[in-house]
Write a structure and sequence with these properties.
Elements: H1 2-16, E1 20-27, E2 30-38, E3 52-53, H2 58-71, H3 100-105, H4 117-122, H5 126-131, H6 150-164, H7 168-180, E4 186-187, E5 194-198, E6 201-205, E7 218-220, H8 222-232, H9 242-249, E8 262-266, E9 269-277, E10 282-288, E11 293-299, E12 301-302, H10 307-318, H11 330-354, H12 356-362, H13 368-374, H14 378-384, H15 386-393, H16 409-437
Parallel strand pairs: 5-12
Antiparallel strand pairs: 1-2, 1-11, 3-7, 4-7, 5-6, 8-9, 9-10, 10-11
């Protein structure tokens, strides 16, 4: 099995063109295969021991740290968070009813739409982070519905600190990483700069600055994740009781999000899954509770198309009865289309400027002149509101201009080129039209 997994990973690495890839497959109490391919931005080979950011995969670790305190009787899941964190508040009085379970199930009512996410990301301490929430409100009644929001898990990390008495990184090391035999894992910074894909080319970039807490601060390796995945299937060293692990993996009625894990059915196989993306690193993990298999795929890159999930599904197929689907091509195809759109827009904009004199002389009808000026402005309107409509497409998740310069850069640049082409056409037409009407 290890040989077939290795051959599959090498093929996936070649077909996707990723700069660096690490992966691990576990079964029961053993690591079946762990490997790394490619290089990091410093030119070093990627191995199973290369530190990688795992972004939102961190949430399952944070939830586990909270549940160790639950198992010890120091936290109760259905007790309001303010009982442990009196400084946790917003302008909405319903915040006092948010329980620990609501945070971990992401049913608290906290939302990117109603909290100043920019202010939270500028925070440098957990205290500053909680203070940034004070002017916010809730999007719904606590416990009423699921809404993905990183704030839930950053508050959960502060909860761990308050009850445990140590800072979050130390608490994670003592409560989770150490007992599970994950010596290379930590919370915070550490890896080399990752990469973003720009029209098919990998460009090294420093990670976008921001608060590194319970929602996305874990740095780990494929080898360490192997030990973590083994624990998630009930084998090897354990930091949770069976009841704690059941709470971690079990979503509330009517939902599919548990506590840092989602229940997903892929090709007839029910998996516990969670993915993560910062802006220069991407990761995904999954466990099969029935077969006892675990999978994780890490890359030191980010793009509009996520290859890690496809690779994970291929690994899952290899350990079952299926045949892995072909991987690769999605990123290059998507970005090639965007490059073509940008080139076409630039060409049309140049043509619009060159032919603006002809337009000014011929467009004399009542409606043709306004339409000839309005339709080229449409791309500029789309570009100017890009963060807003992308946020809408992402179910209200906050999107900033700084974020749009990272892995969405091909889309951002294409929209900017299209907007500039339209604006140049309008400016040239207005200039030419003014000259025609003034008789010059």
């Amino acid at each position: 099995m290890a040989e077939s997994i290795d051959a599959y990973l090498r093929g996936a690495f070649e077909s996707t063109g990723l700069p660096g890839l690490a992966a691990v497959v576990t079964h029961g109490d053993r690591i079946v295969h762990a490997a790394g391919l490619g290089h990091d931005s410093a030119g070093r080979p990627v191995t199973a021991g290369t530190p990688m950011r795992v972004a939102s995969v961190s949430k399952s670790f944070t939830a586990t740290a909270v549940l160790t305190l639950v198992d010890e009787g120091r936290i109760a899941l259905d007790t309001p968070v303010v009982s442990y964190l009196p400084e946790f508040r917003t302008s909405d009085p319903r915040t006092a009813r948010i329980t620990v379970r609501h945070l971990l199930n992401q049913t608290s009512g906290l939302s990117d739409r109603t909290v100043d996410i920019g202010a939270t990301q500028r925070a440098t301490t957990p205290g500053e982070y909680l203070a940034a929430l004070h002017d916010g409100t809730l999007a719904g009644e606590p416990g009423s519905r699921f809404e993905y929001c990183n704030v839930n898990y950053d508050v959960a990390a502060r909860l761990v600190e308050a009850v445990d008495g140590r800072d979050f990184a130390d608490a994670m090391r003592e409560r989770v990483f150490g007992p599970l035999g994950m010596p290379a894992s930590t919370v915070g910074d550490g890896p080399a700069d990752g990469y973003v894909s720009l029209y098919g080319a990998w460009v090294p970039r420093a990670e976008l600055p921001g608060f590194r807490g319970g929602a996305g601060g874990v740095v780990t390796t494929a080898a360490d994740l192997g030990r973590w995945l083994i624990s998630q299937t009930g084998h090897g060293p354990q930091v949770l009781t069976a009841a704690g692990r059941a709470a971690l993996h079990g979503p509330p009625p009517g939902e599919d999000y548990a506590m840092g894990w989602s229940v997903e059915v892929e090709r007839g196989r029910t998996l516990l899954v969670h993915s993560g993306n910062l802006f220069t690193y991407t990761a995904v993990q999954a466990v099969d509770p029935v077969t006892g298999h675990g999978f994780a795929v890490l890359t030191n890159s980010a793009a509009l198309y996520d290859d890690t999930y496809d690779i994970l599904l291929g690994l899952s197929a290899l350990t079952g009865d299926g045949e892995p689907a072909a991987t690769g091509g999605g990123r290059r195809t998507n970005e090639a289309v965007l490059a073509l759109v940008a080139a076409t827009a630039a060409g049309l904009g140049t043509l619009g400027v060159l032919r603006s004199g002809r337009w000014a002389r011929r467009r004399t009808g009542r409606w043709s002149r306004p339409l000839g000026l309005l339709w080229p402005l449409a791309p500029a309107a789309v570009f100017a509101t890009c963060p807003q409509w992308l946020s809408l497409l992402m179910n209200g998740r906050a999107v900033t201009w700084a974020q749009l310069t990272y892995f969405p850069a091909p889309l951002t640049i294409t929209l900017a080129v299209t907007a500039a082409a339209g604006l140049a056409t309008v400016a040239a037409r207005l200039t030419r039209r003014t000259a025609v009407t003034s008789g010059t």
